[in-house]
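so i finally got all the pieces together for this one. its two components total, 682 residues if u count the protein bits. some of the lines might not be protein, just check the labels. i wanna see the whole assembly predicted at once instead of chain by chain like last time, that was a mess tbh
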Amino acid sequence: MADSLDQFLQHIVNGVMLGSTYALLGIGLTLIFGIMRIVNFTHGEFYALGAYMAYMLVALLGVNFFFAILLATAIGILFGAVLEFVVLRRLKTTDIDSVMIVMIGLWIAMQNTEQLIWGGVAKLIPSPFSQQPLVFGPVSVSPLKIFVLATAVILLIAFHFLINHTRLGLAMRSTFQDRDVAALMGVNVGTIYTATFALGSGLAAVAGALLGPVFLVNPTMGDLASLKAFAIVILGGLGSTVGATIGGFAIALVEEFGAGYISADYRDAFSFLVIVAVLILKPQGLFTMKERVG
Amino acid sequence: MKTIRLLATAITTTLTAALAATSTQAQETIKIGMTQPLTGAVAASGNYVANGAKIAVDVINAKGGVLGKKLELILEDNKSNPKEAVNAVEKLILRDKVPLLIGAWSSTYTLAIMPKLIEYKVPLIVETSSSGKITTSGNPWVFRISPTSEMEAKAFLAKYDAFQPGIKKIDFLSVNNDWGRGSADEFSKYLKTKGVQVGSVQFMAPDATDLSAQLTAIKQSGGDTLFITTGVEQMTLALKQAGELKVPHRIITTGGSFPDQLIEHPGPKEMSSYHLLFFSPWFPEKAKYPDIAKVYVDEWTKRKLDFPGLTEGFRGYDAVLTAVEAIKTAGKAEPEALRDALWKTKLPAVNGDIAFIKEGPAGQESGQNEPNIYVVLLNQGKVTMPLP
């Protein structure tokens, strides 16, 4: 009995760790969809970009680990802003489908560029944390993962503060509710779009930079991340950042417990089963924000 | 106008000459087609094997090639995907007209391309895949130099008593494909004959990165030894995460891959792992033909490739040596002649002797080699060979 309780606690810890980074991935994607109505297929590639930048800075250039994560995030934000400014801004008037096609093209182009630059072989990012796990009774966790969890939670809180308590957040929320009215009230919608895409991409990049050292870095790592992010966003409701946060933790825990107690073969299937159920019972997602239609 | 015409003639002539030169050059080479996972989930291993093959081709060409012609290796990426493996093989056969193939690393990719061998009548030298099905399904174009999971399990059994404290209860963490499942079955079967109990058998998707759920379940199973079967990348992740979760087991990996990144970035102090290898570059003198192994190791190091990659690179090297020997025996580079020649081919290689015995249904046998197996121990970045 004690053994099964130990196992249960370890699963909870594993799930929460993973969930925190899933949440970061999820809010980035949901923010971009909610405000810009763009189905962002490049989201996973920004995740990979963050991881590769961290690899380049830490493993190749010998930059301090923490500074490298900060810098990788900044590169993600900058690249997101450039992408919005150069490509997406020109497409604003066209319909959601053609933007989607462009996003798919960008996704493929970005992934192949990563492959061209870094090669297909997975890379390992060394971390300054001790490899000795910390043991709390029956549960053991690596110091690196505690750092990842702490950083992710701080970022999630900071992000919710930004959305709910700043002028930029207010402008974003009003653009989300009604773009035209927001523009009439003096919100510079173009700037909000650039900020949104940059911020969303930065969140994906920081998730990649944080998870890169935990796992390995390879050019196709973004695909799985994109898939998870979409799953989280559908679960939480498109455009809902609270939903994406809760959705991130929920999906990670469902996967962890499903894999641990039912069958690890179907690890990814469990989260998608939940999504199928949500789509049947509450198709708008669990936490959809109210919005004006038309 | 005249100048333009003159220029056009000049360009045409140069082009024709250049084309003629390429085609005569093409006639002078003997092509070997190879498909490996150069990108995707198991890219590390695929690149090692491809590098081994390239080195063998260079070594052969430096000695004057084969049948008076240069050897040419045509490499196609299968992107760690069985569908892409089929495309790669069709391209090699139809576009490049190769008379012989080497590939495709994973059993899943190899099984996917096997029907194409029958369709186009081209022999394949299997350099890595270890699922039993490959040589027992009745495909007379398949010649495997790598060991089957069953051979690996049998060879491991011979070393069973050397493990102290003894192996009493085992758990498995295997990649969820033909190779991983086959390996878990064979090792269970053979170890059960020693009275060993089988505890938890966990599988993971080939591209899964978070294995903590599986490892947490294994940690609680009460076993003493954990067998891990997967490619280098996932093996590295599994070992790192097992260390983080303090999985108490003795860990043994199967399949001949080695987690080279852990040499530079070792896990927690108390962590060590055993690896079943088919070539151990740290101890080339233990190989059956140290001279052949030395040439291979020297050429690899000369190219500044990752040292631990030698553990898998030899597969490509030995496959090319086998192909060359078959071409010599056949006296020509034609698919059917090469298939017949492969049955007669016997050669010394990096792993040891290569020769093919018949496996599978009568009349449609595949060729299977019986390779040598080594066990190394990795502890805090140091590799030793502790077992007799």
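The beta strands of chain A are 134-136, 139-141.
Chain A has a mean pLDDT of 89.
anyway lmk what u think
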